[in-house]
C-alpha cells in the first residue's frame, strides 16, 4: 500500500508541473517550439507610395539582421537606419517617382535561425511635375540688405496656396517677412524692411512628393543659405543731381551724377531713369553697351554702341551706375543720359568697388515711372500692405 501511494503522488506532481504528459502510464517530455521570425514591408506591392515617404521594414518574432533596398533601374542602393531594438528599418534617402525598389530583408528568431524576405515597393507616377529653381542662386559670397530671394517653377502652379505652404524661410536674427506671387510661376520673399546687416537667411522648399493639384506633384526641392554683409545704401536724387552712399547708416560718399533725360531732346526723346528702390544685380568692370539689346538697333534714331567702364547694374532693362566721360560737364546739374546714372571715373570706380549684389540704390525725383517688380528686383518699391496681399495664403 505504501508503494502504490508514492506512485500516485508522483503522477500528481508531474501533472501540476506542466512539463510532461502521461502516455500509456509513462511521463513524456514535450519540447518548446520557437516561432520563425517574420518580415513585413510597408506598402509592399503598392503603386501609390509617395517618394517623400520612407520605405519601412518591420520584424516580428525576431529581429532584423540585414536590409538592402535597391533601385535596379539606376543600380543605386537606398540608405536607411535600424531602430535601436532592430525591429524596424527606415529609409532616409530621397526616392524617385515611378520607380520599383527591390527589398531584401533578413531577420532571425530567438534561436538565431534566419529567414529572408524579398519584395518590391513601387512609387507613384505623377501626371506632371512642377520643378522649382532659385530666383537668387546660392553663392560663396555675401549679399546686400536689399537681397530678394524666391522660387521659380518650370510650369504654371495650379494651387499656389498649397505650394506656398511648403516654402520655409528662416533668418538669424529672426525678421519675419512674406511671399508675393509675381505670376503663376514665380514667388518672391522679403521682410517688411531691409534685412539686418550680418543676417543669415535660409530658404527651403518641401514640395517634392507633394500633390499640387490633380495628379501633378512637386519636383526636386531646392535650398540655399545667404549671408548678408554690411548695409550699403545709395540715395540718388534727380532734382539735386547727386548720389549719396551710406555705409551702416553713415554718409561716406557724395558724388554728382546725371540721370536719364526727361525732355524730348533728339534723337530718342525722353529716357528717364526709373523711380523707386533698386538693388544691385551684378557688375562688370568693362562692357559694350548696345541699345539694340532693348530694341533700338543700328539705323534707328537713338542707336548707340559704346564701351563703358565700372558698370553696376541696377535694373533688368539696362540701368547702370557707370563712368561716362561725355557727360562730366553736366553731372550734378542736368539729366541727359539714356537712363543710367553717369559719373566721372573716380566716382564710378568708387561705387563699383563698394557696391555688390543686393546692395540698395534708392532713386527719387527722376521723372520716370516706378520700377516694376519684373524689371530686376523692384520688390522693395511695393508697399508692404500690397506685398502681403500678393501672398496666396494671406491675399
TrEMBL record:
Pathway: Cell wall biogenesis; peptidoglycan biosynthesis
InterPro entries, per database record: Big_10, LD-transpeptidase, LD_TPept_cat_dom, Transpep_catalytic_dom
Signal peptide residues on this chain, from the entry's feature table: none
Designated name of the protein: Ig-like domain-containing protein
PROSITE patterns to which the protein is assigned, alphabetical: LD_TPASE (PS52029), PROKAR_LIPOPROTEIN (PS51257)
Transmembrane spans: none
Superkingdom to which the source organism belongs: Bacteria
Keyword Cell wall biogenesis/degradation: yes
Residues annotated as catalytic: 322, 340
Keyword entries, A-Z: Acyltransferase, Cell shape, Cell wall biogenesis/degradation, Peptidoglycan synthesis, Transferase
Biological source species: Amycolatopsis samaneae
PANTHER family: L,D-TRANSPEPTIDASE, L,D-TRANSPEPTIDASE YCIB-RELATED
CDD domains according to UniProt: LDT_IgD_like_2, YkuD_like
All residue ranges annotated as the L,D-TPase catalytic domain in the record: 232-364
Span list, region Disordered: 254-274
Stretches with biased composition (Polar residues): 255-265
Record flagged with keyword Acyltransferase: yes
